[in-house]
Design goal:
- The chain is an alpha/beta fold.
- The chain has an eight-stranded mixed barrel.
- Strand 8, helix 10 and strand 9 form a beta-alpha-beta unit.
- The N and C termini lie far apart (81 Å).
- The structure holds ligand C2E and magnesium ion (MG) (3 copies).
- The site of one magnesium ion has 4 residues, from loops.
Length: 279
């Protein structure tokens, strides 16, 4: 009897697994076609320099404008893309599209000269195609490498030691590297001087909740980053109180719904905050 029940459980798992794999394959297939047919779009969220109060750069964030589904957020399809090399194709496309957008903005007045941040998956970094993809996107657009920042999530740096070699090679091209979602992984502050990075992006979970010693932690991270010559961006700023605390703690840059949500180029406006130094 126990044996039969056990077999039943195995069959249920089998069925679930088969279903999950089928859903996964369908999503992946649809996503591959979406990329070819131009259904992926980039929205842009302003990142403000908290000293001058001006928007200095934008972060490119992908959405899937999927017929019959509306605008699908990245959390709903990036994980599926990351299960195969599809994420590398997506990353290559995003790099090219974001830099092409910069060159278009450079032709006008309002958006000329902005920096651009592009999110890069750990799998793309590990694939070793990234260096070529970045080189190609830079030369096709003619954008100066120093205007491009690649955002890599913190967990990738821990999981993949050879990633550090890739990051060093990328930095030699002149592009900047940011650690995204800092504070959610296991990087210790002591590791920072050895990491080939330029910017820390403090995860919004630390910015949002003032309790649980987070305010002290944020202050500590900012001062450590500065002592290692790293810039600091706070993500997910939603309230004035959070902004004021970050400014008091000498955070360099900030991003969040308080200033602007990510938006399509046609709807983009560059917000300003009150300058913290006279200018
Ligand atoms: P991320 O790189 O950490 O991007 C920041 C996310 O926080 C974005 O979500 C943004 O809309 C959201 N956000 C910004 N300000 C606020 C705020 O004040 N409050 C709240 N609650 N949220 C805020 P989004 O666009 O849904 O992107 C989610 C994640 O998907 C990104 O997190 C990034 O890890 C990934 N992603 C987005 N675009 C790409 C891409 O082109 N390639 C790759 N590999 N990943 C991407
Ligand atoms: Mg990011
Ligand atoms: Mg982030
Ligand atoms: Mg994130």
């Amino acid at each position: 009897r126990a044996k039969a029940a056990g077999r039943g459980v195995v069959e249920v798992f089998d069925e679930e697994l088969r279903h999950e794999l089928a859903v996964q394959a369908t999503t992946e297939e649809a996503l591959r076609r979406a990329l070819l047919e131009g259904e992926l779009v980039l929205h842009y969220q302003p990142v403000l320099d908290l000293v001058t109060g001006r928007t200095a750069s934008v972060e490119a964030l992908v959405r899937w404008d999927r017929p019959g589904h509306g605008l699908v957020p990245p959390d709903a399809f990036i994980p599926a893309a990351e299960r195969s090399d599809l994420i590398c194709d997506l990353g290559r496309w995003a790099l090219a599209a974001a830099l092409e957008q910069l060159t278009q903005w450079d032709e006008g007045e309002e958006f000329a000269g902005l920096g651009m941040a592009v999110n890069i998956s750990g799998r793309h970094l590990a694939s070793r195609h990234l260096l070529d993809d970045v080189t190609d996107a830079l030369s096709a657009s003619g954008v100066e490498p120093g205007r491009l920042t690649l955002e890599i999530t913190e967990t990738v740096l821990v999981d993949e030691p050879s990633a550090l070699d890739q990051l060093r090679a990328l930095r030699e091209l002149g592009v900047r590297i940011a650690i995204d979602d800092f504070g959610t992984g296991y990087t210790s502050i002591g590791q920072l001087p050895r990491l080939p990075v330029d910017v820390l992006k403090i995860d919004r979970s630390f910015v949002a909740s003032p309790g649980a010693g987070h305010a002290d932690l944020v202050r500590l991270v900012i001062s450590a980053a500065h002592s290692f010559d790293l810039g600091v961006v706070a993500e997910g700023i939603e309230e004035n109180d959070q902004l004021h605390r970050l400014v008091a703690d000498s955070c360099d840059s900030g991003q969040g719904f308080l200033f602007a949500r990510p938006s399509a180029p046609a709807d983009l406006a560059l917000p300003r905050a009150r300058a913290t130094t006279g200018d």
